[in-house]
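ARCHIVE ENTRY
Sequence with per-residue tokens
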Amino acid sequence: MSAKSSKMADAVFRKQDKQAAVTEYHRLQKVEKEKGARLRALRLAKQAADQEAASLAEAEKAAKKKPAVKRRKKATAPAEAGKAAAKKPAAKPRKKAVAKDAAASD
């Protein structure tokens, strides 16, 4: 083998080595993208499950909570009821001023 053929063989070997390195690089990139996509899908699924669990827990908490009880006013004793009525003045009937004015102008 001559020096020229030796250099040519080295060039071919380097070219093949370069192609193999580029191919390996692209394969690793593809693996990383697939791994990232898988992890992203898992994260999104976990977030959705956590949100669903939180909403169910909140619904259960709301269901367990007792409804607000409206309290009635205490009934007053009959003697107290008379005092309360005496304090309030009776409503006076309204006068119909319009009817009187119409009769006066006739």
